[in-house]
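Agenda item 2: zinc ion complex prediction
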Amino acid sequence: MDRRSFMSHSALFGALPAGSPLELRLVEAFDDMEIVDSHEHLLPEEARIAQPADFFTLAGHYAMNDVTSAGLPRESLERINTPETPLAERWRLFEPYWKLARFTGYGQALRTAIQDIYGFPEISAQTLPGINAAILARNKPGLYRYVMKERARIRFAVVDDNYNAAPAKLDPEFFRVARKFDRFIAPGGASGVSAAEKLTDVSITSLAGLKQAAEKSFRQSLDVGMVAVKSTLAYSRELRYDEVTEAEASRDFDALMRGERKAPAGFRSYVDRPFRKLEDHMFHHVMKLAEAHRLPVQIHTGLTAGNGGWLTNSNPTHLTNLFYLFPKTRFDLFHIGYPYQGELSVLGKLFPNVFVDFCWVHVISPAVACRTLHEYLETIPVNKIFAFGGDYRFPELTYAHAKMARRNVARVLAEKTRDGFCSDKEALEIGALLLRDNAERFFTS
Ligand SMILES: [Zn+2]
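Presented output:
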């Protein structure tokens, strides 16, 4: 193979899986089947198409994190992210690091989206103007119907609408809504408290006021159809939430309002939480609200997006007391806790209320996704595994992720069938549970 045909062939990875006949049949069956998407950040279509979109918009989520990890200087990133910068210059700054980062899962997803949705098997200085023209041409009403329904065949996606501070209805043809209450759990300082006041129109002068504001936001979220409570506090602090008395939490709240303790800046904030007792108490309060309304709770565990972070904060074993304290609450633990997927395997095995979620994982690493699914199928009952959540802001990348997930599930089930784990028919049934039925039941019952 000459270099050119090697390049275009390698850009076609995944288009024709080189697997066993059973794997090919499973891929076909899962491609035909509608799936349920446990987690997204997708904007409403009106918001997406109201903004200009080009190749670098799509690269911004998450491929640019790996391009940055490869060494892209911060000043170059700023130039790339300025749409007024000439396209040739944006590419010249991006290309040397993209070349190194394009093989990661994030890079694979971006290449798949550009190839399958926009028809460009190669991303280069020559093809970039055409890619941008194709993205622009689709950036209008109907984009979501085409990408999410016709191409990705997603029945519905549970969206963390972190772009909406106040609860808002989402289009039920595409979405169900998960809501976060982290702003009430960890207001950070007096300014966070006053933002929560403005948001809810509840006066907050005490711990009781903060709880009332959280409860009002919770009720408003129920009114827009919230199907799950979500928390991403692993981005800010350790996931261990101790039982803290009202008196102790009140002392923290009063100190916060008086500006007595200063929250540390930068990386120290990951470990030094001056109002931790307040946060712990409020987290338990939100868990009680979820329990009262029989809502499942989605919790970010493992790797955080972006660059940097404090990995050990996100270990899912920190959450163990909650599984005992709220036995009727179903916990959907995200991202298989990667790289704590072994710990999560044990939690999913031991606790009837712990469910394990591969959202984001097939683009973090297809190999980790396959290895871990092999392991989980042997350790965790099949009703508790969610095999797909896109975790993207842009539907083209959700499509690419869904394609990778369908292929990985087909590959693992074909390998397991070959090893005598189950029959061909059972492989199909398990795939339908993992990709559709488990999540559908979880979020609609
Ligand atoms: Zn997410």
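Discussion summary: The chain is about 50% helix and 10% strand.
Owner for follow-up: CH.
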